[in-house]
Design a protein that fits this description.
The protein is an alpha/beta fold. The protein contains 11 helices and 11 strands. The radius of gyration is 22 Å and the shape is globular. It binds pyroglutamic acid. Pyroglutamic acid binds next to α7.
Length: 323
């Protein structure tokens, strides 16, 4: 018996010695479901941190707003209720206009443009978070945004009077400029909002169209590629400072890798999820030239309003975006 137990115990001790006795567990609330690339990317990030730190930091992902509702996540990380979290950047548009910038139609409409926009605005985002005791880890985009409607949209006027979902102050403003009526609805509530008639239309990515089964409530997807919004992952700066230096380095390395991987995932999602909309019976179509130019004109109004709210920094960012 002793001979059998010996290797077992030795093995157990060996595996225990790999896990530091100072192991830290971080609960991480995220707003979106497991089917989105954001959540999948964050799970890979958490696995990489665990691996790089030999289990010294264990990030437990609570997806789909299961631990904390989306509008509460920012405050929860600030207060230290949780050490780390993810949010949609546009959600903080009322805190600081810098967060509105990637919800403006046709300010940028390609991943390259979105990437430039991120490089240009990142320092201001980092500074804004820093002032709140937060540290930015990484940011990943959604696929470009398009219109989900019950009937085909030929002209911008077809959106007049429609009850449209909004997911940020900026998209509410867009709905107003389209003379539609905006209602804020979080992603988990999209199906219910359609089925109870609270909304008739939404602007979002093919990713969210698929995860909310848009074909159950709408029939047309206008692939307008109007803007490319982002999510961001941040930590409570005090919680981060409490980590041993080697763990801090591992987190930052995994964050850099997650950002690069996430951008690639978003590009791939654009095609696969748009195809899935079509496969489920939705008509996927391109905007007319008139629709695109009318929407761009509204985007110009929004860009001007935004620059004014930002002050001199706004003009500087807009000029840095020009090729
Ligand atoms: N999906 C999220 C944000 C942008 C997107 O594509 C949503 O619809 O709330």
């Amino acid at each position: 018996m002793r001979n059998v137990m010996k290797p077992l115990i030795a093995g157990l001790l060996a595996s225990l010695s790999c896990v530091s006795i100072t192991a830290t567990k971080w609960d991480m609330p995220t707003p979106y479901g497991d089917g989105t690339h954001h959540t999948q990317n964050i799970r890979e990030f958490a696995a990489e941190v665990a691996e790089k730190t030999n289990g010294e930091l264990n990030i437990v992902v609570h997806s789909g707003a299961s631990l904390i509702k989306h509008p509460e996540i920012h405050r929860a990380v600030r207060s230290g209720q949780v050490p780390i979290g993810e949010i949609f950047m546009g959600l903080l548009g009322n805190d600081n206009p810098i967060y509105q910038v990637d919800n403006i139609p046709f300010l940028v409409s390609s991943f390259d443009g979105a990437h430039t926009l991120w490089q240009v605005t990142r320092p201001a985002v980092e500074k804004s978070l820093q002032k709140q005791g937060l540290k930015l880890l990484f940011s990943v985009p959604w696929p470009p945004q398009g219109f989900y409607t019950k009937t085909r949209i030929e002209d911008i006027g077809d959106l007049k009077g429609i009850k449209m979902r909004a997911y940020s102050a900026t998209t509410s403003r867009l709905a107003e400029l389209l003379e539609a009526s905006p209602t804020t609805v979080q992603t988990p509530e999209i199906p219910q909002a359609f089925s109870t008639g609270i909304i008739d239309a939404m602007i979002t990515s093919p990713t969210t169209g698929v995860s909310s089964q848009a074909w159950d409530y709408t029939a047309y997807y206008l692939d307008s590629q109007a803007w490319i919004p982002k999510n961001m992952v941040f930590v409570n700066a005090r919680a981060f400072a409490r980590l041993p230096e080697s763990v801090q380095t591992a987190v930052m390395e995994a964050a850099t890798a997650a950002e690069a991987r996430g951008w690639k995932m978003a590009k791939a999602e654009t095609d696969t999820k748009t195809a899935e909309l079509a496969k489920n019976g939705m008509t996927v179509y391109q905007p007319s030239a008139k629709f695109a130019s009318d929407l761009a004109a509204i985007g110009q109004i929004m860009a001007n309003e935004w620059a004014q709210e930002m002050g001199p920094k706004g003009q500087q960012i807009l000029s840095e975006l020009k090729p």
